[in-house]
Amino acid sequence: MTAKHDAIAAASPWVRRFAAAIPKDGVVLDLACGSGRHTALLASLGHQLMAVDQDISALELLQSATVQIQKLDLEGSDWPLLGRQFSGIVVTNYLYRPFLEELPKMLVEGGVLIYETFADGNAVFGKPSNPNFLLNPGELLALAQRSGLKVIAYEDIYLDQPKPAMVQRICAVKGHLKGCIPLQFVG
Length: 187
Description:
alpha/beta, seven-stranded mixed beta sheet, 5 helices, globular
């Protein structure tokens, strides 16, 4: 197996489920992309991407004509992506509240936000346990409501895979969804 294939296989089931909702006529932002598992998935689906993180050392193999990789300080005093527009934004296992409100503003009409990270109650299972890195109950729903995003799906649940954790996740669109998301059952 290749590194790209391994990265795609490691993609979150939530992101995998809703990736098809992201319009293909723009650039997708993989924010705090880590090892690039979602960058690899979205590139394999034909998207143009901007993958950003403060450590991009694991992303060299993903650089291509369709994948732009940028080393950015996402927690500085200034938001480095101010004024940028994206057809989709994917964020997993990352929370930095000072710029959370910027994400919906960065979506084009029909753009999709897919966000999944640890939630209140996760301290029981280990790290992260600091409340600064855990979503409050309903926090992503409130963000969508304040921003005028239409919620496609939302969960605030316990997961046992890949490790026990409390997570909150949302898929929301600015305006109206340009395609359809097939009903999926996992069993």
